[in-house]
Amino acid sequence: MLRSVVIAAIRSVVAVVAIVAVFASSGVADVAMAQPAPNTGAAHGAVTPRLEGDPPAGLVIDRSNVGEYSEFIGPSIQWAIERGMRIEVVDPLPIPLEPKRLVATEKYSAQARLSDDKLRVENYVAGLPFPLTDSNDPDAAVKLMFNYENRIVVDDLDVRNFDCDTGSLLSKGPMHVERHFLIGHFRRLYYVGRLYHEPIHSHETPDGVRYKEALFPLIEPFDLKGVGLTYNRFLDPLRQDDSWLYYPVLRRARRLSTAQRSEALFGQDTDIDSYGGYAGNIAWMDWRLLGRKRILGSMHSRHFPGKWGEPPADFVFDDTWEMRDVYVLEGRSRLPGYAYSKRVIYLDRHSFVIPYTELYDHAGELWKAWVNQWKIGREAFPGAKVAVYDYEQQFLPAVTMFDMQLDHATRCTIPSRSFPKEEGWYLNVGPDVGTNESNVGLSAIINSGR
Q: Considering the entire predicted model, what is its pTM?
């Protein structure tokens, strides 16, 4: 027994040393990993190396030259460029893990393991559970998705005063806006993987909650004023989300099925499962690693909040794009009645965030895309007072989801330009000034809608 304990301890030490080595590896080592047959996960925070033939910094890709660079963009981005979108290429920059997430990954990842049914991570505490994922591992796809899921964990999140336009896309002229939405808050409170505020790591959760979130109230349009949604995600992967939609006009709350998370609500294009690139339960998809690719993504944007392109490309943001090494993952839902046949997710290898996701209909045709505009930095904008951090944080100044079959789009500016001093992104600010249990439940939504 003593011998087995010693061996286990040695293995843990070796694993931690390996993680530190990978996370601290130089750009030269990362170039080697960028070749076709990788053995382990990408170096933490490394700069995506420039290779011969990459689009150079300073290049502008538009409909006149998109064919020359199509290998560096997904089919949805090429579709958008052919509709008038422009991509300004800049040099890539690193996207490091926050220091506390890095420490937690080094400390706890050696004990994490994928359950036998591939639906959950066992012995998880905090950080990335599988930082050394081998691309040849038959379970690589689901492990990478669990890395993504735990990369975006926050203690608490409050995104305030953002707006969205939804409407038809015209071949000439601006997007025809059909409805304008203004939303007060999107809040999320995590019960596991916590790093910044007490209780650290795990919040007491008798009902087995992973996180609770709420989107409310809708301020515009007038006919939806006071509407709100709330969702609870559970630790048990077999337990469906507890999701409710509240209509103040009817004075009733309607429960949503899990499959309805893939449906667009209120005449716009976005679905709950697509938030951020993917917000569904990892266990509800069959995952497959399609391979690796070098693509352009908008990861260090200049504008906050987002700035839309010139018509007819004003359905997507106008900002800088850079080369990124990504895993290309396919997810097929296990839920009957799910709107999409599959999702193709481009997952950044160095940061585990998603530049964009493409969605397909049940005939196998490309249907929609969710595109993120990332801003990585220590503050939302110069002069911010609250959304200021002592480590590089991730902000989303804008997102867009466009329907390539219906020529329709929903674009969101986070926060709205109607609130010029709004910092918009309040992450890990603590329960006293941020998100707590009292404002992520159905009762809070009902009270706000009165």
A: 0.90
